[in-house]
Write a structure and sequence with these properties.
By secondary structure, this protein is α+β, with helices and mostly antiparallel strands. It has one domain: Alpha-Beta Plaits, CATH 3.30.70. 47% of the residues lie in helices and 20% in strands. The chain is built from six helices and nine strands; from the N terminus they run ααβααββαβββαβββ. A five-stranded mixed β-sheet has the order 2-3-1-6-7, sandwiched between helices. It is flat. It starts with 10 loop residues before the first helix and ends in a 21-residue tail after the last strand.
Amino acid sequence: MGYARSKAPNGDIALELDTLRDTNARLLRELAALREREAQALKLADRDGLTGLYNRRRLLELLESSVDEAARRERCVGLLFIDLNGFKGINDEYGHAAGDKILINVAARIAARVRSSDVVCRYGGDEFVVLLPLVPDAGAVDKVADAIRERVSLPCWIQGKEQHVTAAIGQSMYPHDGRTPAELLHRADLAMYGLKARLRRPMLRLGSVPHHRPLRRRDDRSKPGVGGAPTCGDL
């Protein structure tokens, strides 16, 4: 700390300066460590502890901001609500550790099939939600859902035995299916559970006909784009 300087006539001042420098350096280190801990805490608050995906709270924040941006730019937002078929049986037979392995595996498979700008969330249990900001039309959302469904259905191994889960995917899109985050989540959730109830092909848009094309009201038939996949211009 250079205390030898104190032998000078102004040694007391030199000692105080050295002490202040040391204190200042220590405070700066403590402040940097505090900021690092705060950043880590914020990150953990946004993430699911098992899969590392965003959690429900963060999803709702990002969905709200995506809807606001889409409204300003007259674009679309896609939402996929995913539930796993076959997960409960594996979890019950092989235990929670095996179930956790399946969830981690599925989370990675979903994340591998979306854009860097998309958001994947573990919504709870074996449910996942994918947010697709600023998509051009329903066809783009369909393609992502198809890719996720195909990837999730690939086999995985638990205790040396081949296991399979599949993804039931309910789909909604702003602004066609709703204009608020709550409406979009509700519509996608209903579509997913309607799909599971009917044991049909694992993707459905609420209020849709085969090939995922939305039904139009009678007064919409004269509007441009009727009969094809809805685009933001059509909506």
